[in-house]
Amino acid sequence: MAPSGQVRKEPGIASAWWRRLPGVVRVLLRIALALIVLFIAVTARVLIWPALGQGMPAKVNAIVMLAGPGDRLPVALELADQHRAPVLVVSRGSDGYGGPCPLRPPGMQLICFDPDPPTTRGEAEYVGRLAAKYHWTSLLVVSSRPQAIRARILVGRCFAGTIYTSTAPLAKRDWPYQIAYGWGALAKAFIQHRNC
Length: 196
What we know:
The protein is of the alpha/beta class. Helices cover 46% and strands 14% of the residues. The protein has helices spanning 13-20, 23-48, 72-81, 120-134, 145-158, 175-191, and strands at 62-65, 87-91, 109-113, 138-144, 162-168. The longest helix has 26 residues, at 23-48.
């Protein structure tokens, strides 16, 4: 019985349910919950709000638009209109821009290509060859947020210079698939493709 003047609180249904579970099950559920929270936090940091780097200079050697979902071409063309680089490189990959090469921005060299293989890795290999040919030391890569870190890793394996990133918006309906795909592609980049 509760002391006079105090109301005794009965345990709630959830609390009673929790206490009836064996101790080892409670520990396992806490671990599972912690892992889920950790996975969500890492997903947010790596694929949804990636660190894009700070201090991008006014000019780089080339703007490189990778293929993929999102409205990337307007972002790349806006950067070109700002005269951020003398060269615009556009990947027309199967899941990318896919159309004809866009009109050349005034005062810029325009290079369009179809990556082989048609992946971020194929794009990185091609960009690495271009960079070696033209002696580039800095790039501004246009991608989507789920692709940004993977793009920096893969392009960085084929290009020794400085890589900056700009991201294009994705439609809300594309996010679930792009997050799942992003994790798979990132794992593949770390496990299967460790060099250019």
